[in-house]
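Deviations from the work plan: none for this task. Representative record:
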Amino acid sequence: MRELRPTLDKSLKDVKGTLVRARDPAYREAKHEVEAFNAAYCAVLDDGDLEDWPEFFTEDGFYNIVSRENFDYGLPVGLVYCEGKNMMRDRALAIAKTSMFGPRYLRHYMTNTRISEIGENGMIRAETNYMLIEVLSELPSGRIHQAGRMQDVFETQDDGRLLLKSRVAIYDTLLVHNALVLPV
Amino acid sequence: MTTLPGSSDCPRCQKEMGIEMDWFKTVKASTVLDEGSVATEVDGLRVALWAVDGEIYATGNICTHAFAYLTDGHVENGCVECPLHQGLFDIRSGKALRAPVSKDLATFAVKQEDGYVWIDVNTPGPKSEASPAVTSAIGTDDRTLVVVGAGQAGAETVIALRKLGFGGRIVMVGAEPHPPYERPSLSKGLLLGKRKLEDALVFEPDQAEELMLDLKLGATVVAIETEDKTITLEGGESLAYDILILATGARPRELECTGSDNTEIHYLRDLGDAERLGGALRNAGKVAIVGGGFIGLELASAARKLGAEVTVIEAQSRLMTRLLPAGPANHLADIARENGVEIELDAHIINVSDKGVGLSDGRVIEADCIIAGIGAVPNDDLAGPAGIRTAERGGIIVDMVSRTNLPGVYAVGDVAVRQDHSDGPMLRMESWQNARLSAERAARHITKLNPGAEDDPWFWSDLFDITVQIFGHVNADMPVVRRDGEEAPVFMAQDAIGRVRCVIDFGDPSALREAKTLMADGQPLAADGSGARNSEEDDMKHQPIESRFVWPTDGLVSVPDWVYTDKEIYDREVERIFHGRTWNYVGLECEVPSPGDFIRSYVGPTPVVVSRDEDGEVHVFENRCSHRAAEFCRELRGNASEFVCPYHEWSYDLKGNLAGVPFRRGANGAGGMPTDFNPADHGLCKLNVARRGGVVFASYSDDVESFEDYLGDEMLKDYDAVFSGRKLKLLGHYRHTIMGNWKLYPENLKDPYHATLLHTFLVTFGLLVAGNKSAMICDPKGRHSTMASAKSDKAVSEDNKKEMRAYRDGMSLSDKRLMDFVPEFDSPWSVTMQVVWPNLIVQREMNTLGVRQIVPNGPNEFTMIWTMFGYEDDDDEMTRHRLRQGNLMGPAGYLGIEDNEAIKFVQDGMLNSTPARHTVQLDPDVPAGTSETLISEAAIRALYQHWREEMGL
Ligand SMILES: Cc1cc2nc3c(=O)[nH]c(=O)nc-3n(C[C@H](O)[C@H](O)[C@H](O)COP(=O)(O)OP(=O)(O)OC[C@H]3O[C@@H](n4cnc5c(N)ncnc54)[C@H](O)[C@@H]3O)c2cc1C
Ligand code: FES
Ligand SMILES: [Fe+2]
């Protein structure tokens, strides 16, 4: 679980080490895996299959969407704050079944994947940029809803799948347009 | 002809039973069709014949209100307007349509034969529509309503109640031996013997029985026991009530001076007075009238008619100094003088005796009849001991629906003093119209109807053969424009921006109609007193804002779109509200814990800096360099020893004082500031600061009350539950925009109705249930509020489920911790959402705490800045609990999403469709203010009551 006071991921600040790791086959492999994971993750959210979204997390997974402002000042408040897959299930259910909001399309883009650490038992630490475009009925031309980065910890399961043990989405676009309805 | 059993031979009785048709030939039909109206007499009755759309109708020709021929009136759209007081009747049905007339005209059957109009005075004309029987509801309600005082206001209350369907028992107790009557003719027709008591009765014959009114006359109420809801009559009898109407009227103020105890002084309030005074006047040679008000002048008129010499003695330097501006008041005095009345102004009475009235200058005004008309004292003696609030200057204090401070107790008519909210102005009116309207307001409230449109005040007086009428609100200081009609002048009193607010008419119907049009127009008059042209759009733009934005006449139950969409209104809000006498949230002290700490913030849309100085004091100043206006502070937060504007490096200390101006003395002896430049005059624009419980507020106003007085005791309780002195711990911010008017946000939190309907989540998971313990509490001014509820484990009832379309059964949370409530507050509520007007919402949603700051960006958009916090003594688990519960709120919160969306939808509706009004009618029980039910919009109405005051609109 994430510390209450978030900290910068120091390993990414090590330019030389990062470049060396980028050539490491294990890291290249991990990068592909993470990218494939994220592609599936985005597809589920973009299709609006909200109730499948918790399936990307471990049972004790952590999920948080936090502004860069809060993150940089070490403040823990997030737009969404889920401790454990059950809280994610509840969010998926609440948004899908009880919430009122205008119809919208969302499109996620995840790029610039960096693998910062491969640990024991298939633990992978990664960072990925993300962008979220939203299209509303009153705004058919769409606009950027969020831009930011994901700070992730993956866990490799017995069957070889990756699952998220922690995903913190840190958004630079401090001013949220109206409401953020779906997870990023 | 059949003879019915029990019928007599008396032709009159036969007529009454409608057995006989008595046709009388009148005038030529063509005359009626040509002239539109013809007066005639049939069988001793004065009848009017009318042509409406080619049909001929016959009605009584004398107004049911006072003596006037309707055929002299103005006919339009099938209605006739009485020439005397502009009462309105429908010609076809005889229906009385507009005050002051309340009784319908008689109508008569009409036929045309041989080119003549025939009428039958014993058969009414065809009824247009049967009015529903007022009594059908009687018995449907087991409450007893008691009216104390059988005067006009009491009687009008009973009539209105029955008309509106009140089905309970009604008892009326009156001290006088007569059934309720209208007093105006006491000083007019009745005094001169031209009218009889029967003409002035409020109830028509048999009406009291029809209304199932239990009328107890000659009975005085001596006490009210509000605890056990009874009243006691003189003689000891007691009566129980569920609803009590106090309609005790007023009594004449007594003249007190040497000799007043043993000299006969006449007063006029009731029929007994009028009979005595009538006798005295007929025998009097010289009459002295103390007091130059309307009653005094009417009596002067009556006394002159009876041939007496009359002197009116007035203490002020002109007549009616408090009531009327000088122009119309002096015109009245001139009329009196022309009719032979002596008027003594600035006259101070030393004594009275059987010789007359002695003045301070040594003169004696000789008189064999002395009358005092020096005002009335409200009969409010019953109220005080019963715990009913009275005004210092007399009268029972009521609100806009005639309620006193005690539930179920109302006051109407002359005894009531209206005050719309707790520190608003008090107004007591003594007029026929007020007796009726205040009665109607009470009746509407009792029968759970909206207050209805507010009529402008109207008053009339008949004297020296003319009728004076006052329409609208007037006071003595208003500027007045005089227009001379053909027969008499009309005066128009204006408000500060030149709009006609009151018309004072001396009996010229066409001048009056024109003046009333100008008043209805709402446009200021041009400088020369002529009506401003208002047809052209250009002219509109030059009209002041008050006449371009006029609130709907039906009052607070509708809110016009321009309140939310107009830029000019928005600019005025910034000036009058955010920059006015308000306290605006700017930040938490825990955001600037140490000396040198600062944050950027806003007051309304205006950027400010909140800084803590070396001594620990918190300062708030505009984020605008005093040199060239640069918004110098760009960081969201930080720590600094001084603020330096990046452009020319002017520097300011932590208090906002100008500390340094580079090259102030120039370079090499050249350039630089003028020698008299004083840095002390060029500091940043500083705001006043208030702090309470770790929260910082700022105000542009130097005469704003203390923050504690601003919030008031009741609101402070909810506020202090959150800001109890426990040190706050900052947890983070959210920022988001909403494409809606900023007021929709506070309104959303004054709208408990939406909570159970929009927020299905709350209902589904048992956080809020219709019928839960909850409250919507407003401060007395209507600006601040708390929406509160207590968590309940009760299930939603089947009935309530049906009302809530979106309700979904059988859903439950997998992680129940979201709904845990850890008690930690000194409050009966588990949830409070408090609006601190104008820009703060304090959120206590169980254990997730936050403040929301509203930053408007024009009429159609605002930014919300949320600051979430916990307490310093929270352990990690408590902080996590607050964060978990935070999922309910914020721009991605289960409730937050929905409110933001709903507000956007509302603004879209206004911007994209035809401008119209919002309807906020729920819960007529509470016209504006605190309500016990969630199904209420009373708090929104209270907000707009306050907003209109602040905005002067
Ligand atoms: C002479 C005169 C001329 C007027 N002319 C005009 C005019 O031209 N135009 C105009 O607009 N207005 C006029 N008015 C004002 C108007 O008549 C009053 O505003 C109106 O009568 C008020 O009605 P009310 O029911 O409040 O009081 P009232 O009509 O005074 O009725 C109150 C009743 O309550 C009774 N009462 C009081 N205490 C008790 C008790 N403890 N127990 C039982 N009964 C009690 C009183 O005896 C009285 O009958 C005039 C008033 C007067 C006196
Ligand atoms: S006399 Fe007709 S309205 Fe008054
Ligand atoms: Fe809401």
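Residues 754 and 865 of chain B are 23 Å apart (CA to CA).
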